[in-house]
Structure formats: C-alpha cells, structure tokens
Amino acid sequence: MMANSIKLNLKGLDELLERIKKAGGSIEQAAEKALVESAEPFFDDLKAGIAEHRLTGETERSLRKNKVEWEGGKASVKIGFDINNGGLPALFVEYGTPTQKAQPFIRPAIVKNKPKAKRIQQTVLNNILKDLEK
Question: Coil, strand or helix: which one is 97?
C-alpha cells in the first residue's frame, strides 16, 4: 500500500500525442517516456525530504516509483512511501504527531513540481515528435 502517491497524467497534451501518432509513433511509448521522466523531480524531492529525518534509513528505502500503469486511455505513475514496508514515519513527518510538529515535504514537492512535470512532459513529447519527423 502506497501513501501519498502522486499521479501524473498527460491531460492537456492530447494534441501533441495525436501528432506523434500521425507521424508514426506510439502514443503509449511516448506517454510512458514522458511520465517516467516527469516523475523524477517528485521522486528526488521526496527522497531529499525524508533524508533530512533519517534515523535508520528504513523510511527512505520505502520510497517507491512504480511502473507506468494504464487504465483505459489514461496512464499514470505512482510515487510514494510504501506504508507496509517502513513508510509510515513519512506521514508522521508530513502531518506531525501530538508530540512532533509537522514538517511537510510531500505536499510542497507536489506543488513545486507539477508545473515542472508538465514542462518535462511537453519537452519529451516534442523531442519524440521531432525525431519522428526527421
């Protein structure tokens, strides 16, 4: 079970994906490449955020970046802490406890990286299109 997973999608980039398809490319491969690359800033920020609170390293090791999943025509990649495998302390850091002040790092990573993710997705897809049009 993954808590605070981040789902990225290609909403708003449909036109670019269609252009890739018309140029002979694979929408699925293009979408997956864009999602994987745009997930990196989130993953990196979560890793850095939890590293500041390292005691045993178990919570850091629970950070997961899953493979791209497809549901109908929607692709997503999940990033988050595996609660069943040492990730629960990440929630305590994020939201606090009765004796520990909250030190958010998950929500700020989401806010900070959403615009960056969209730019990365657009760049990846534009590069794929340029390569196909050569």
Answer: strand
Q: What is the pTM of this model?
A: 0.84
**Is the distance from CB of 31 to CB of 17 less than 8 angstroms?**
yes
Q: What is the DSSP string of 53-91?
A: T-SSSHHHHTEEEPPPEEETTEEE--EEEEGGGTTHHHH
> Per the structure block, which two tokens stand in for 39?
């997930």
Strand partners, 80: 64
CA atoms within 13 A on the CB side of 77: 23
DSSP states of 110-125: HHHHHHHHHHHHHHHH
- For residue range 24-44, what is the model confidence (pLDDT) as tens digits? 988 889 989 998 999 999 999
Among 76, 81, 78, which Cα is nearest to 46's?
A: 81
Tell me the domain boundaries of the chain: 2-132
